[in-house]
Design brief:
Layout (H helix, E strand, L loop, with lengths): L34 H30 L1 H12 L9 H11 L2 H12 L16 H28 L13 H34 L3 H6 L2 H6 L5 H21 L3 H19 L12 H22 L18
Helix pairs in contact: 1-2, 1-4, 3-6, 4-6, 5-10, 5-11, 6-9, 6-10, 9-10, 9-11
Length: 319
C-alpha cells in the first residue's frame, strides 16, 4: 500500500498483469471517471423498475391468495409488526434485494464502463472452485461458532431446543436456500464490487475502496449501536478479502453462510431474525467467527498450490 493516494491522470491505465481488484475498472480503454456514476444512475432506474414489477406481482398474489394478502398488508403498512419468521415477509425482503444484481450488470454492459466479468474477479469471471472452497471454510467456522454459542447459552440456563414442528418450517427453509445466496451475492456485487471499483478508479490506495463503502452498507441494516459495529466489521472484512484475494468469491461465501445460518436457525426458533441489536457476548462471538474466516482464507490465498486464485489480473477477459 505504498501508492500515492490520488490518481492524477484520469486516463492512465494500470499495466497488464498488475491491476488489483479495486483498480480493474481502469483497465478498460473506454474508462472515463464519470462512467461509473452513469452506471449507478442507470442501475438505480432499472432497480426501481424491478421493484415496481415485484410490487405488482405481490399485489396480484395477495388478491389470489388471501393469506398472502394479509401478510403483505402487514409488510407494507405496519413496520412494528414486521416479522422475518413469516414466509411472505421473508420472501418480500429477499426478493426486494436480488434485483440489485441484474440491474447492476445490465447497467454496466449498457454504459460500457468496463467488462462485466471484471466485477467478479481479476480473472474476469466468478471463480467457482475458489468460492466453494471459501464457503466450506465459512461453513466450518460458523458450525463451530454456533455450537459454542449454544453450549454457552445452555450452561447459562437458556433453552436451545429447536422447534421442528412449526407448520411454516418447510417453506422458510426452501425460501432460505433458494433466495439467500442470490440476495447475498447481489449485496456483494454492489458494495464490494461496484462501489469498490468505482472508488478505486478515482483513488489509487485500496484503503479508500475498502473503507468508504462501509457507512452505506451499515445504513442499509436497521440495527442499534452494537449491531452496527458488527455490520461495519463484517463489511471491512469482506472488503479487505475482496482486495486481498482479487475477487468477490470470499466475501460472497462469507455473506451467504452468515445469512443462511441466521435465517436457517431462525426457521427452527434458535435465532431471532427480527432483533435490531446484539449483546456484548454475541458481538464477541460474531467478531471471532469473522476474524477466523479472514485468517484462514488469507492463509489459503497465500498458498496457490492449495487451490487459491491470483490476486492480480490483466483485466481483459470476459464473463
Amino acid at each position: 500500500m505504498t501508492d500515492s493516494l490520488v490518481t492524477s491522470d484520469p486516463i492512465k491505465h494500470p499495466a497488464p498483469g498488475s491491476a488489483a481488484y479495486h483498480r480493474l475498472g481502469r483497465t478498460s480503454p473506454s474508462y472515463r471517471w464519470w462512467k461509473p456514476l452513469l452506471v449507478g444512475l442507470l442501475g438505480t432506474v432499472f432497480y426501481l423498475v424491478a421493484l415496481v414489477l415485484l410490487f405488482l406481482g405481490a399485489v396480484l398474489a395477495g388478491l389470489v391468495v388471501p393469506e398472502v394478502g394479509r401478510s403483505l398488508n402487514t409488510v407494507f403498512t405496519d413496520s412494528l409488526a414486521f416479522d422475518l419468521t413469516d414466509p411472505v415477509t421473508l420472501a418480500v425482503v429477499l426478493l426486494s434485494l436480488i434485483p440489485l444484481l441484474p440491474a447492476l450488470l445490465l447497467a454496466t454492459r449498457i454504459v460500457g464502463a468496463q467488462r462485466v466479468g471484471l466485477l467478479s474477479s481479476v480473472a474476469g469471471r466468478l471463480r467457482w472452485r475458489w468460492m466453494l472452497r471459501c464457503a466450506s471454510v465459512a461453513a466450518a467456522v460458523y458450525l463451530v461458532g454456533y455450537l459454542v454459542i449454544f453450549a454457552v447459552s445452555a450452561l447459562g440456563g437458556e433453552s436451545v431446543a429447536p422447534d421442528l414442528g412449526r407448520p411454516e418450517l418447510p417453506v422458510l427453509l426452501i425460501l432460505t436456500v433458494l433466495l439467500v445466496p442470490l440476495q447475498s451475492a447481489a449485496e456483494e456485487y454492489v458494495f464490494r464490487g461496484y462501489l469498490m471499483q468505482t472508488i478505486g478508479g478515482w483513488l489509487r490506495h485500496p484503503a479508500f475502496a475498502i473503507l468508504l463503502p462501509i457507512p452505506l452498507f451499515v445504513i442499509g441494516h436497521d440495527y442499534e449501536l452494537i449491531g452496527m459495529i458488527d455490520v461495519a466489521v463484517f463489511a471491512a472484512a469482506a472488503g479487505w478479502l475482496t482486495w486481498r484475494t482479487g475477487g468477490l468469491e470470499a466475501a460472497i461465501a462469507l455473506h451467504v453462510v452468515n445469512n443462511l445460518s441466521i435465517f436457517g436457525l431462525s426457521a427452527i426458533g434458535l435465532v431471532d431474525p427480527n432483533g435490531t441489536d446484539l449483546g456484548p457476548v454475541d458481538l464477541v462471538f460474531s467478531l471471532l467467527m469473522t476474524l477466523t474466516f479472514v485468517v484462514v482464507v488469507t492463509r489459503l490465498q497465500a498458498h496457490p498450490a492449495r487451490g487459491a486464485e491470483a490476486r492480480y489480473g490483466r483485466g481483459d477477459t470476459t464473463l
